[in-house]
Amino acid sequence: MTNPPIPAITKRAPTIDFIDQRLPKHHPLFATQTVQYDVMSGQYQAVGASNSGLVSTAASNAPSSSNSLVSRPEVADLNAMPFWNEIFADSMSQFKSTPEPKGRSKSLYDIREKTDWHAVYDTLQMARKKYETSGGIIRDMRRKVADRITPGAEVARIGSKVTPQDKIVTPILGAVELILGAVEIAALVRKKALAGLDDMVPVFSKVELFLSMFKEDANIRNASIDLTAVTLAAVERTIGFFISSQFARTGKALLSGEDYQKGLIESFETIQTKSHDLWEQAQNSHMFESHVYYQEDRRIQAQMGAKIDLSTLVAVQGFNAVNNLLNDLAQQMDQKIDRMLQPIRQENISLRIENDRLRSTSPTRTSMWLPPPQPIPGLVSSWSINQETLRNIIDVHDLDLTDLALVQDRKEQLPSRDRSRAEQVTNTQLFRSWIVSPSSTKLLIHWDSRLPKMIAEVSPLTVFCTTMAQALRSNPRFLSALWFCGQHIDAYEFGARSGGQMMIGSLLDQLLRQWDFNTEPLHNYIGYDSLQKGDVEALTALLGFLIGQLPPEIVLFLIIDGAALFEREEVQDALPVFLSLIQLVADNSVRATVKLLITSTPGTDIIRGSFEEEDLILNVDSLPILTAASEERMVRELEGELHGDVP
């Protein structure tokens, strides 16, 4: 006779498993495939109204351009610039509104009548050739004077910045190459040009991409025209330098000093400014398109919700009604069992404490060569407890490990786009200042405006906290304790472990698991009865007692995710715990460095008050998405910060 299969163990409430697995055998209503339990809402919903279905449908109805994942083209030739050529005429028109150098229009080096970039670039090449071939004794003297102003090695280093080996080459970058090769400037001006080039090369590499991405965006087009116009002006100035008299150039270099070719360098700086303007316009356009797609998703969701027929609604109501009844029954049974077991638990703990006390005070044979032991004052009125027994009293064994495993299982269901944005936190100045600060500090991270997709209260910030905890726990210099509010919000669920008491209990359990503390003097600070009852004030005092023992070389990271969920009325005991953690950071008597990180999706309403005055709130939804999500890259960046800068 074969035994029936054992049902798979799940994290869902037993009431849900009972409805889904047992009730279909007793009534056909519960055998329907149109209703399923939604973990995010905690209710039964129609299958068509589930979040995953809505998201996938919305994605399929999005514009085709967002579905066809075409790789970004590589611009590796000056001829491959269709978007720059499109704006050339308007850029030339704007450039021609500026004053023209005297006599230039009648020379071979006039660029104001050119019709494309190639003609302008050829004129610049021709002027440079004239500059390099003309000379004689005057040229040799000019070279020696320039060597005293700018070392030849520095000129070579400037040239190496703009070699054709760069993957992305724009006509602007080609013009910049000639500008820097043309001018041998004084030391101070040379440093400014070098700094400008270092900042411009990565900016120019994105300009062509922005024009192709936002073809119909007038803001991008206008910013591109401005950038092209000032580049034409810089090219015209450079041509003027090339074709000017050698004697005049030599005299200016000797007499002007640091102001030599100041106008040309200012033209270069203007190109840099306009490039940054174009970059900002591209960011604004990207945020606007994201908002449009978000609104389209919501519209499709509303349409799908309206299509649920009446029979499905009746089934949903029936499922939820049965679930509520079973939850009420389970809660009553849980409370009844808890009341029955409470005296037994108290008796067991009392016996364990008494056993520890008797073992610590039991008489031992004394050596005949030693004096008898002296009595310990106050022994009768005091109590002592070892670390393992303390963990048993708190009774939150390894809850963080269960939560970490759950987040790991569900993180891949989150969009890579949202996870990538959360990972950009490591590149912000606020986060870096927080993590490398030699003293205790705090930071609050919000994702508030355009909320990301979440799976069972697992958000991209939850995944960020998980990755950070893994990086911290690989280094023995760091202690870490974390809590995911989103996994402990249902106070009425069967076997629920929620609220401020459970949060601080889990933090204590993690500390006791990572460090050996001296618990002998604990009775001087905390009452045993309060500790046994799980009083939040007693647990808070215990946390301060333990952290106070950590040595100065230890850095303790406290990470709390989903804080807004614990601002609800049903978990009122959590707010005093948050306050105690914030006060712990400001406690100068704590020798260890304490770093508190609180994240929340959406943002908090009450907790934020402790961070606003110091400008310690970081908003994730304003960060750009520069690369695809990569936990390995994020861990490497975190380890670089932690191993290099944290005291």
TrEMBL record:
Domain of life: Eukaryota
Taxonomic classification: Eukaryota, Fungi, Dikarya, Ascomycota, Pezizomycotina
Protein name: Fungal STAND N-terminal Goodbye domain-containing protein
Organism: Paraphaeosphaeria sporulosa
